[in-house]
Each structure stands twice: as structure tokens, then as C-alpha cells.
Amino acid sequence: MAADPRTAVETVTVIVDGKEHKFPKGMNLLEACLSVGVKIPFFCYHPGLSSPAVCRQCLVEIKGAPKPVPSCYTAVADKMEVTTNSPRVLEIRRQMLEFTLLNHPIDCPVCDKAGECSLQRHYFDWDGKLARNEGDKVRKAKVVDVGKHIVLDQERCILCTRCIRVCNEVAKSPDLTIANRGSHSVLTTAPGQRLDNPYSLNTVDVCPVGALTAKDFRFARRAWELCATPSVCPGCATGCSIEIHASRGKIHRLVPRENPLVNKFWMCDEGRFTYKAVTENRVRLPSIDGKRATLPAALAEAARLLGEDLAGAPQRVGVVFSFQATNEDTHVLLRLALDGLKIERVYAGGRALGGSDTILVSADKNPNTTGVVRTVPPPLRTLKELTRDLATGALTTVLVLGNEALPVAAATPVTVIVLASNKGPLVAAANVVLPIAMWAEVDGSFANKDGLVQRLHAAVPCPGEALPGWEVLARLGGKLGVEMAYASASEVFAEAAGRHGFLKDAVWGDSSRPVQLRFGESRG
Amino acid sequence: MAVTVKVVARPAGIRGHTYLVAVAEGMWVTFRHLMKNFPGNVLGLRKKTDIATLSYPEEKQAYPARNRGLHRLMKRENGDVRCVACMMCPTVCPAHCITIVPEEAPDNAVEKRPRIFEIDELRCVVCGLCVEACPCDAIRMDTKVHAPPTLRRADAILDMEALLARGEPSIATQGGTGPFWREKV
Ligand code: SF4
Ligand code: SF4
Ligand code: SF4
Ligand code: SF4
Ligand code: FES
What we know:
The structure holds two protein chains of two kinds.
Chain A: E1 11-16, E2 19-24, H1 29-35, E3 59-62, E4 69-70, E5 80-83, H2 87-100, H3 118-127, E6 144-145, E7 150-152, H4 162-170, E8 176-179, E9 186-189, H5 201-206, E10 212-214, E11 227-232, E12 241-247, E13 250-256, H6 269-272, H7 276-279, E14 287-288, E15 291-292, H8 295-312, E16 317-322, H9 327-340, E17 345-349, H10 369-375, H11 383-392, E18 397-401, E19 415-420, H12 425-429, E20 432-435, E21 444-447, E22 453-456, H13 469-479, H14 489-499, E23 515-516
Chain B: H1 13-18, H2 20-42, E1 72-73, H3 88-92, E2 98-104, E3 112-120, H4 129-133, E4 139-140, E5 157-158, H5 160-165, H6 181-184
Antiparallel strand pairs in B: 1-4, 2-3, 3-5
């Protein structure tokens, strides 16, 4: 990330193509030119990585310098005069592209990167000339299985070394290298290595061409068929900013979105597959005792069961919050169960702890633990206590949000009302199942482990009769005499922000509609 | 738009008022044509091919070379489908009538091929854009065959087998030969 010009202390004056601009001292010249709308093509530079200046695509003229210099490797200096559009620079730019394309297979029809490929874009913008080479191209290996998630096409590689730097600098696992010389240079895995580090798929994102492709996404969709929606990874408490890439109501991949506060430009491989839970094994329809029911009937049955037990033995009724639910769902459940129904036994849980590292991954595998803990007043009992209380009979009725993996035997005498999105033991054992939407289908917010509140945007429609959790809870409240009227998630958020301190400074932000990827600038 | 009425004055004189003269003039033109064509067409003194009207369906018009008929999928030399499932044709198709599901091809040099390729000929507007868009000379509309009538809508959807049945090996080189289109403009 370049320093923000507004907060920088010292600025320098640089003349770019005859126009004067002020930049913070020490800013990268390529970044500086791009920030004022001067277009310079580049391949090897990436704002999150070091600059080796190997591709020579970003050459510009600087007054006084004997030859053109790579702008990605030059810092702005006072009174610098830069030319990016002289005939000489344009010709160098075109020649560099011709050189890069010399042995390029031009596989675009079968190449997964086509449509978001930097080489395609720069060719159309700056070259557009016929190839002049007459001999055969140097052929290299295609479809090389380099790692668990990744396939390499050595012919398409333009040797920018971005992927090598991602492995070295981000994943801290030097798995890749360049072998051989000249036009026979190839990207390959280091001897005895596989590209299997936990951040390996970031190499696919940074690869400006289609040399590295993700097995999971391979041939699933062409890039231009996808629509991008900003969201937050639900894989762990770090809460990496992501983009959901979906097409015709189906998610096809998750890619990191730049966020200097959390994940910079990266995300872990595990997080990329969290979308599978959205597409697989979903609860689509409400049911009562395992039989399909309409939503009003299921809501009425849930209200009847809860109402009876609350009238009979209120101390034996419990409510379970979920560390995976959004702040909005959590707030409405708080209003319903604690404010409205005065339930005293309050539990909360989520996925079990897992592995962590010092790069991004947190041990807490739930995206909103902080939000739940700061919304619901203590004491919050754990899932372990819940299982014990269910076994001892201290509980006769529970209202559960999420937590579908909770091991509850189908024969337990306890009345279970669950708002579930995925199938699991809890859903199989439940008396009433109310389907709810998942993170990729709702507008909402998560608070990550540092308390940073981030927005989710609906990217795909809810499956079957599922509704956002807050909506189901508000309707259930209506049947139990706890009136809550919300027209949208933003109204819930506004109410929650007025009540819970950690949401006070958070902003709901604008709504975001899926944007079709047309040479998306964020990748490649 | 407002309706505007333009009043045209009736032609003056008896000739204009009765129209009889004009009717007679018209009849004379018709009669002239009849007399001109009678010996040729009716008495069979003229060649059949000189007559504009065809006795369809016994006689058929020869189609121009670039007529767009039913689609076909071209083949590689070994008989495999030439299409690489690049999705250009479904992207450009204004009728959204092409459905392609890609899969990994066993040959690494081919890499990608369609698992399912279907064209709904009922929806197709015969624009030919799919042929124009194809970078591989994989889809053509040069069969000169009309979409046949079907009893069920589903029968009008041609699958890969049906499309390949009319196919033949293409001699095109990928990327094409000849002058570059940009240099012509
Ligand atoms: S890397 Fe880019 S230019 Fe090369 S084949 Fe793929 S899409 Fe085409
Ligand atoms: S595989 Fe991609 S990122 Fe890696 S060196 Fe080649 S072009 Fe660059
Ligand atoms: S001819 Fe036009 S409408 Fe028919 S399949 Fe091709 S692109 Fe679609
Ligand atoms: S444009 Fe050609 S190669 Fe591409 S999917 Fe259509 S038929 Fe296949
Ligand atoms: S981007 Fe500057 S040399 Fe590659």
C-alpha cells in the first residue's frame, strides 16, 4: 500500500507528462503515476510484494537519466520530470510486449485467465500488432500438477516471479523457482518441493497470466461470466476481506480483497473453500418432527412449544447463540430470547478451535465470536455445558441458532427448535427446523478478533424457503408476543449500533450489487 | 405524435372526377403484360429457369454461398470435437440458446473440451454471431439445412452428437491465416 498523500508529512513535486503533481516523499513512481490516472502497464510489480523489476514493462523516461528506467523500482524525487507517453516510451512498451509474447502460446480460448489476463489487456491497450516471429515457438510443459490445489502451464508463464515472491515473502515457504536460461527458462517447483503451502492459492491470484490456475475453479466459468460482491471470509476470527465471485446464483470462487487493516492482499487456502458449505448440504425447507411443513406452520409450532415450556418450567428453557451468526441475527435473538422471553440459560458456541499461524489464520474458526461476546451479556455458557445440561435433564427446551454440528441424539427427550442453514445431527434431532440464510446470502456484519466490524453483502439468493436469521427470529417473536418490526438488515444494525458499544463507530455503508468482472483490476 | 390530416384536392375535370380513364389505363398495362408473356410462359416457348416463380417444393431455389443453415460442429483430424468450450459463442449469442458444460480433455495439448454442447434451434435467431465469434472454426452454419419441424420442443434442441453428425474435419489453422483484420481498416 502506498502511503496516503493526505497524512504524509513531506511531499515532493513531480512533473508527470508535463503536469505537476505532489506525492509523499519516497512513494513508488509507478504507484504515483497510477494514482493520478496516468496508465503504465506492468507485470512483475505487485503492491504487496518486493519489486525486482524483471519484466521491464513499466519503463518510463526521466529527464537526466541516460536510459529509460523501470518506474516500479524508482522512488519519486523532488523536481523529477517523468515522461510516460513519448513515442520512444510507447515503442519500448510495445517492443517489451512483443518480446513477452514471442514464445507465448496464445491459448486464450482454453486459458482460464482469459478475460482477466494482464497480458491480453496490455496487448489490446499498447500493442495490437501482428506477430513477426516466423520460426516455431519454444514449447514447454502444460497442465503440470504442481500442488494440491494448483496446475501450472509453463508455456503461459511470463517469468514475472510474482508467485515466487508470494511463496517467499507471504507464505514464508520457498516452494517455487525459475530453472534454465533465456527463452528456455521455466517456472518450476524447487527440487523435492510441491506448491502445497497454506497460502498457495495466492499465487494464482497474483499470476498476471494463466500460468497458474486453481484446480477448484478450473473451467468452472469464464472470468467475464462472474460477478463480484465484497464480503468477509467466514473461515476464522481474522475475517479476511474477500470478494465472492458468483455466476447465475452459484458461488464459484472466493478471492482476497485488499484491506490494509486485516489481510492486505492475501487469504489462506482453507478460507477459499468456505463457500462449499454455502452450496452443499443445505436445509432448504422448514420441517416439524422431520416432516416438511410450511413456514407459518413451523413458526406456529415453534412458538407453541416455546410458549408451553416457558409457562411450565421457564428455568429449564435455554437459548444457544452462534459465533458464526451475524451481528444482526445475534441482536434479534438477544431481543427475542433475553429481552422478550426472559430466558435465563444462555449458551453460545461455534466451530471447535483449530490450527493457527502468525500470518493470517486464527485458531478460533468462527467469524463473529467477538460480536456475540460483546452483544450478549454474560454469563455465556459453553457448548460443553449445554451437552451436560441436556444429558442431566436440566434443560427441557432449547432454541438454537446455527450450531448444526452439535451432537444431539435423536432420542433425547428435549424439545429442540433450530434455525439451521446446513444439515447435521442437530437438524436430524430437532422438533422444529427453520431454514436460514448463510453469510454469502445476507447483508450483515461480522466483528473480527480485533473488534473490527466488517460488512457482508448478499451475493447469491437464499436457497429454498430460507430467510435471513433475523427475519425468521422477528417472525417467531411476532407469534410469541415479542413485537419486532424490521424492514431490512440495516434497520437491525441501526438498532444494534444504538445499544452495543462495539458497533457504535461501525458504519453500515452503501449497498453493493454484484459487479460483473470485466478485466477486474484487482487480480493479475 | 399528433395526427396531422392533409386534405388533397380532387383532380379537376371529368377525367379526374370519374377515375374511369385511369382504370382503363391500368387495364391496358395488365393486358400488355399478358400479351407479352402469353407466348413465352403459357405456350411453353420460354425456358422454365427464366420465370421468377418456382413450383416449390418440387423445385428449389439454389442458396447463396453464405446462407446460414442448421449448425454443425467441426471435427479434429482424429474425429474429436474441435470445440474447446471457450464460451465465446454462448457469450455472444443474443438468444442465449447455446449451452456448454466444459470438461478437462485427456490430451494436454487440447486441455479443454465440451462435455455437453446443446443448441436450441427454436430459440436461435439465425444471426450467425456464434460462427463469427468462434476462434477455432468449431461451429459452422454452412449446412444449408433448415431447422426441421418437430413434434416436441425438446426435439429442436440439438446435442453434441447431432451437431457432430454433420461435422467434418476442418482444415483451418488456429488463429487463421491471411491479412490481419486491423490492417485492413
Ligand atoms: S495467459 Fe492471457 S494471453 Fe496467455 S493464453 Fe492465457 S489469456 Fe491468453
Ligand atoms: S507463474 Fe505466473 S506469477 Fe509465476 S512467474 Fe509465471 S507468470 Fe509470474
Ligand atoms: S445463430 Fe445467433 S442466435 Fe443462433 S446460436 Fe448462433 S449466435 Fe445464437
Ligand atoms: S466459440 Fe467455438 S470453440 Fe468456443 S465454445 Fe463456441 S463452438 Fe466451442
Ligand atoms: S513492473 Fe516494473 S519492471 Fe516489471
